[in-house]
Design goal:
Elements: H1 5-14, H2 16-27, H3 31-48, H4 56-60, E1 64-65, H5 67-76, H6 81-88, E2 89-91, E3 97-99, E4 107-108, E5 111-112, H7 120-124, H8 137-142, H9 148-160
């Protein structure tokens, strides 16, 4: 099991062509079968990795925030919604909101200081429990070198599906 982000980044670079081949390979596999394997691997691997030893997702991802989430967290922090928005959010022309800094304001010592009130995107990451893994391969490989869980699940998936580069 690899958790060192520098080593993961190096391996990711070495395996760029192999991973492109793996994407093509997975697209030709039965989607439900792949989902079952990914779910089982995710259960095993995510239980062996302590995310608070890494925190790279919170250090490197841009998080979308819904109106409901902004209202909820501003209330939890005892701030007016306007104060919360001015301090923590950026709003695009389309009304979409994102956290206005990377790393996240709420990350301290690799731990989320608002964990029980965190945003849906944070709760869902790395998203390996969702169905249709083979339809989300672009996103999976975008995070392959960012998240040790994704990296290890993908590498184990290569073995479980008998992938030969």
């Amino acid at each position: 099991m690899q958790i060192n982000l520098e080593i993961i980044a190096s391996i990711a670079e070495e395996k760029e062509i192999e991973n492109q081949q793996f994407v093509t390979y997975l697209k030709n596999k039965d989607s439900k079968e792949v989902d079952e394997i990914v779910l089982a691997l995710n259960d095993i691997i995510s239980s062996e990795i302590d995310c608070t030893q890494c925190g790279n997702c919170c250090k490197s991802l841009m998080i979308n925030v819904s109106e409901e989430e902004a209202n909820h967290l501003s209330k939890h922090l005892h701030q007016s919604r306007n104060e919360f928005e001015n301090k923590y959010l950026e709003k695009g022309n389309n009304g979409m909101m994102i956290i206005n800094t990377i790393p996240c304001h709420f990350l301290n010592d690799n731990k989320c200081t608002v964990y029980e009130h965190r945003f849906a995107g944070c709760k869902e990451f790395p998203g390996l429990h969702f169905p249709d893994f083979t339809k989300r391969l672009f996103t999976i490989f975008m995070h392959y070198e960012r998240c040790p869980i994704i990296f290890n699940v993908v590498e184990a998936l290569k073995t479980k599906t008998n992938f030969k580069p």
